[in-house]
Amino acid sequence: MKYTSQRGTKDILPSETPVWQRIEASCRRIFGLYNYAEIRTPVFEQTELFSRSIGTDTDIVSKEMYTFEDRGGRSLTLRPEETAPVVRACLQHNLISPENITKLWYMGPMFRYERPQAGRYRQFHQAGVEAFGSTDPMLDVEVIDMAVQLFREIGLTDLEVDINSVGCKKCRPEFIKKLTKYFTDKTSDLCDDCKKRLVKNPLRVLDCKIQGCQSIIKAAPAPVDSLCRECEEHFENVVACMDEQKIKYKINNRLVRGLDYYTGTTFEVVSDKLGAQNAVCGGGRYDDLVKELGGKPVPAVGFAIGLERLVGIIGSDVQSPKSDVVDVYLIAIGEKAKNIAFDLASGIRKAGFSADMDFHGKKLKSQLKLADRIGARFVLILGEDELNKGKIVFRDMSEGKQEEIKCDAATIVEVLEKNK
Ligand code: ATP
Ligand code: MG
Questions:
Q1: What pTM was estimated for this model as a whole?
Q2: Centroid of ligand 1 to alpha carbon of 383 (angstroms)
Q3: Where are the domains of the chain?
Q4: Are the C-beta atoms of 264 and 165 separated by less than 8 Å?
Q5: Interval 32-42 mean pLDDT
Q6: Ligand 1: which atom is nearest the Cα of residue 277?
């Protein structure tokens, strides 16, 4: 084969798109129920938008970005995530202010140069939400609840919500001091990446997936033990509200997420059906990001769901919906009949029924076989005889019954309506 899709990318084939459409429809429905509005941004942005927000020492920015120079000499990057572009768009179009709550959702492809494996691609899709304008812990819970409701609607139940707090710019420096102190005499046992992280951004060490580092990380100080009064209170309120809402969760002291902009609450939804890549959703608060990107200080909270991983869990359970089957297949014998059939097809579609016809000029028998194979519910046959009489054969494929009816779109649509 001459051309193939690139490593880490994949074609979503017609047999798979029904699952995707179902998930996408659920996202739209659930996000809409919570009054979130959709936003769509370009797939590439100025590189600095990402390095500034996600953080230069994160895995994403240091080794996973698709960065290139365009013909005008600008450094551009294919979006690795959507929070920064959404904030950029909000600032550019004045969508947020400290007085209002702005609720947005998005869905689309993201790009990261990662090592491809099950559940990890270089082009993948996320659906996510961002809520701007309030520090209310209840808003954190609303966002988490939205993810849980979405998973429930899709039919995923055995999921676990992990939550944590990573503190704010007031309490984090103190925590980082503690963390650095803890790791200092263990440096030689850490992986090479973590040795660098320890100098540049010690919090990132907690996010390391390497086995050798994991055992050291286990005994490391946890961010929750160093929270300032405000962060502590916020986290307590989040947890209390989760309890009240009866949303099941687990406090996971190690959960730091792979992006620097998080402050306070962080959370992840994990499924044990997914193996190593077990997170289907990641999110949290990012109260400093809007200001960092040039706006007024506006607190915010959001999440992103990895759609490939959702498809991976539910994929095989979903039947192709009926809408995939064509309502009417038109068989015409001869050039004149073909012209009429072409016209009829357009009339049938205008009435809201799907219609298809032969373009190979095949014989009646093989056309009937084809109609059967593609699952046509009704077949219309226009041969020379019918043509002369101004009639057309209307055949119900499921019952094998057929009748001759008047050959015009209005009559055909009437019969279709009756047999619906
Ligand atoms: P992970 O720990 O699995 O690398 P992450 O912390 O990098 O995830 P986020 O940046 O928070 O993930 O993205 C949110 C969600 O997007 C993840 O929970 C996951 O479901 C999905 N996701 C992230 N990276 C990929 C990828 N390369 N391929 C497929 N899905 C991904
Ligand atoms: Mg990652």
A1: 0.91
A2: 57
A3: 17-171+227-317, 174-220, 328-415
A4: yes
A5: 98
A6: 3
